[in-house]
Write a structure and sequence with these properties.
- Strands 2-1-3-4-5 form a five-stranded parallel beta sheet, sandwiched between helices.
- The model has no long low-confidence stretch (mean pLDDT 93).
- The two termini are 20 Å apart.
- Helix 3 runs parallel beside helix 4.
- 37% of the residues lie in helices and 17% in strands.
- The chain is α/β, with parallel strands linked by helices.
- The chain has one domain: 3-Layer(aba) Sandwich (Rossmann fold), CATH 3.40.50.9100.
- Helix 4 links the parallel strand 3 and strand 4.
Length: 150
Amino acid sequence: MSQTLYVLNGPNMNLLGTREPEKYGSATLADVEKLCATTAARFGLTVVFRQSNLEGELVTWIQEARTKAAGILLNAAGYTTTSIAILDALLAVQIPAIEIHMTNIHARESFRQNSYVSKAAKAVIAGFGTDSYKLGIIGLADMIGAKEQA
């Protein structure tokens, strides 16, 4: 079994730390990557951490994860509510995926509340800020049977 998790981030996530800090906080995407790597290491796992503003690139990485990863942690951002292509890719790869959001999308505008990603995700984590990533890594580790290292 692969000991790698793919952590994929969608559009505008590269602006973390400066984009709407009242909603997303002051942590940068580099801070989130470090949090994911540290959390994964607790379970003997490694992380491939990527961000793209391009839908097709996210689809390609999801497909790549099929043979290179044990699971996917996905913050599809703005593509959450629009991308059937990402939904189809998640359904095709047949490895566990967790959908995450830094904010509680259900407490925001109604157009943010319909997620195509949720239709393929094994779980959804929302509203914990950057800790959504940490919780997602812990959840994926459990799903794939990775145990916390002593």
